[in-house]
Structures are given as structure tokens and as C-alpha cells.
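Dear colleague,

Thank you for sharing your sequence with our group. We've completed the structure prediction you requested, and as agreed, I am returning the results in plain text so they can be pasted directly into your records. Please verify that the sequence below matches your submission; if there's any discrepancy, let me know and we will rerun it promptly.
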Amino acid sequence: MGRKRSNPADSWMPPRTCRGRSAFEFKPKNGGTIRLCGFDSSPAQVWSAYEALINDKKDEHVFAGLVDKFFNSGDFVALAVETQKDYRKYSVKVLSVFGPVPPDQIKPEHIRKYMDKRGLKSRTQANREKAFISRVFRWGYERGMVKMNPCIGVKQYKEIGRTRYITHEEYEALYKVSPPVVQVAMELAYLCCARQADILSMKKNQIIEEGILIQQSKTGVTQIKGWGPRLEAAMERAKMLPLNVGMSSIFVVHQPSGSGYTRDGFNSRWMKAKQDAKEKFPELEFDFTFHDLKAKGISDLVGSLNDKQAISGHKNAAQTAKYDRKIAIVPAVGDQ
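Please find the predicted C-alpha cells below.
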């Protein structure tokens, strides 16, 4: 990831690209300036010129070169920040095996062999890394860089959906020992049925008279989570999060410096809170994830599956059903 642009209007530009005196220019790490195209060019043309320049510098004959081109493409930059981080993480394992191999020499049987070996340690990671490989090959195939996508037809491991429901007792126990920033994030995730990424990126300008305006990063659905006593209390607690002297923040959940939390930064506090809860309440289980808080919120909603879908922001009831984890109480025969 490049540094944040001083001028937000230039955030669409490729890495190390800037406005020169008469044209868009690329600044190599080793110094110098390379002209890309004139100011009359569209953003798409600027990206095209940038990709052509980068691709000329890379080894087109091995898979590592193809991955590098993908990482420098407009398609990759358009992905969510957390997805970019995940892809870079997946690439470490993948490139250790396929990096020096010419892309067109990688066949479905090689992907299967990789999956089989990787699956011995983690089937979930094997699936994720295969999805990354497929994404790179699809991108390259559409641009004539490779002849085929060897991942097509290779079966993934079946993943068992999570069924963990966080009880009220477990939630309250964890909340009691958590620092304020974790408490605020827990309440927002539960009350708004929101993902961690949407909470950590939540800005104060999303707080409006009717409630909290949230556009889900995964589904794109926009909703206003209406005010209620508990949500109002959570927001008041968010306003009390500490800030260093002279600092301000645009984020609802923020660090003392005013900066927002990264996923890894917040997760370290989340894991510490769970460890503290485990020590103080050894009779309870805390083997749940932060994402399970959203499932608890959906499970605790009152109403039909369609009612829950409307509130959760899912595009279909099948998605909502995966999050509805509270075990139903049904009558015994003869007691209907």
C-alpha cells in the first residue's frame, strides 16, 4: 500500500504516480521520472500506461511475475483494503511453490497436489490460496497473458459453516473485562449486525439524526440503524474513548492518536480481552470470533427469517439463515 495522498482528488492514481509539470509521471524507487501520459488522459488511460510500464519491467515468463503484475493492476487496487492484505498473505505460501514456474506449465493436477498437501494442515487456507491463484490466472487470461486457468475444475474442500451462538452470559462476561474500545466495537457489531471492517472504518459523519448510516462493505447494502437506548449508550461511550492532547479523530472507534484501528491492531486487543475473560470466568467458553457477534445479533432478533433479512442487510434469506444460530424450541408431539 502506498502512502495516503495529500490531495484526496488524486487517490485514484497508481502507486508512485503524480502530476508533473505537463503530464502524469511515474517516480521509480531508485529515483528519476518517467512520463506516462498527458493531462488530457482519462484515469483508465493513466492506469493502462502505468501497467504497461510495470509489466515491461517484470519477468513475464514465471508465475511470480504474473502475480506482481496483478498486484500493480487497477483491478487489485480497486479491491477492499483487507482483501488486498489477505491476497498478499496468501501469495507468500503460493509463490514458495509456484513462483519460479512458467504460468502455462501449471496444470490442474499441480493445483490439486498443492491443495492436498496444504489441506493436511488447513483446508480453509488451502481453499483461500486456491481462490487467490484462480483470481490471478483469471486476470491474466482476460489480458492474454496465460492460455488457461488451471484452477477451473479443481474441487475445493467442503467447509462446515459456523454454528457457534454466543450466550448472553458469555457476552456479558467478556464485556465486563474488555477495555472501552473493545466494548464499543462489541456493542456496534451486536446491535447493528455489522462486520468488523464496517465498524473499524465507521466515521463520525455517519452519525445522523435518524441513526447510524452504514453501507456494508461486502454486500453494498446501505441502511440506517435507528437509534435505541442501548445504541445511544454505545455511541456515548464511543465519544469517551481517550484522545491525546490536541488530537481529534474522524473515526468512531479510534486510537488515542486519532487514527483508526487496523484489523490486526484491533484483533490483538480483542484476543487479549478474551484471554482475560477466560482467566476470570474459567467456567465459561470464549471460543468464538468477533464475526460471531453479528450472528448473535441476527439470532437474537425477533421475527421471521424475512424480517431478520431486512434488518441484517443480506441480499437473500439464505445468507441470513447462516447467521441465525439460536436453537429453536419446538413443542413435543401432542403439545402443539
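Summary note from our side: Residues 92 and 99 are 9 Å apart (CA to CA).

Kind regards,
the structure core
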